[in-house]
Design goal:
Layout lengths: L2 E6 L3 H11 L4 E7 L7 H6 L4 E3 L3 H4 L6 E4 L3 H13 L3 E4 L7 H14 L3 E3 L7 H11 L6 E9 L6 H6 L3 H4 L1 H12 L3 E9 L4 H5 L5 E8 L4 E7 L7 E8 L2 E5 L8 E3 L4 E3 L6 H4 L1 H16 L8 H20 L3 E2 L11
Parallel strand pairs: 1-2, 1-4, 2-3, 4-5, 5-6, 7-10
Antiparallel strand pairs: 7-11, 8-9, 8-15, 9-10, 11-12, 13-14
Helix pairs in contact: 1-12, 4-5, 5-13, 6-9, 9-13
Length: 341
Amino acid sequence: MTLTVGVIGAGRIGKIHVDNLRGISQVKVKSVSDVVIDDLESWAKEKGVEVLTTNYEEILQDPEINAVFICSPTTTHANLIKEAAACGKHIFCEKPVSFSVEETEEALEAVEKAGVKLQVGFNRRFDPNFRKIRELVQAGEIGTPHILRITSRDPQPPGIDYIKTSGGLFMDMAIHDFDMARYVMDSDVVEVFANGAVLVDPAIGEAGDIDTAIITLKFANGALGVIDNSRQAAYGYDQRLEVFGDKGAAQADNNRANTVEVSTAQHVSKEKPLYFFLERYTQAYIDEVKEFVASILENKDVICNGLDGLQAERIAKAARQSLEIGAPVTLQPTGKSTAIY
């Protein structure tokens, strides 16, 4: 069976998904839509894309297309999910589903009503190192988890125009860590306490956001978590994770260009972390697409579903509220599984 796909949004992430989809023998990328396609014709031809259009409805109305990838701006996601679901298409949507919990809930209702699959693009779940940590926790290797620590620091901040429209640090950056926290600990977050500051660029504060944060979490299973975020780490893209339990601990360190460590009388040195997120998570982006395709062709549950997307948004909203009021914010657990295999 061949899965025929349409991609809505041909920016950086949309093009990455096209490349990764083309690497799967059972997939045909038939159509791509974007609001501006003047500079995309040679790219589309090179990638074997048959239809390049400014009208995404052509993709949704095409009976040959089985699944759509939504890679357009966040403000369009919820409506596109609802429209795609109504047309019977399976859906892969980049995170977050929306900036509004209510809009996300409406989109998830449409998906459930249509009986189609929805996978949210939290690619870090598919990182081999982080997946291994989860497997170790699930297998009881470290015993009962007590403490989760996540470090997530970008090599440089995004442009101010992006800051103004991204939903802020909690929604566009830390939301990955909120999802990872639920995924690794296999438990809902029931309390969020966030502290933030503007230490990297005053313009970020002027735009109404923060660039540095410490977030503490309480989980429904009783464990505690700490996340630290920064928009700028001078040494590269810093992505580390540790789970500590009553029988031990498991850590995932940064990916580097090589693992060579040089020791001399003067110094001990090794390579800096990979600088760009596309380098760090290359395999994760490939694997999330492969597993979405497999979920359709083999009729399996997706690993990161709409509920996971909703919960990450709820935590991000609670973090923002906590920052504003200077106190912890309580969340109600869903009582449902955080990841399905």
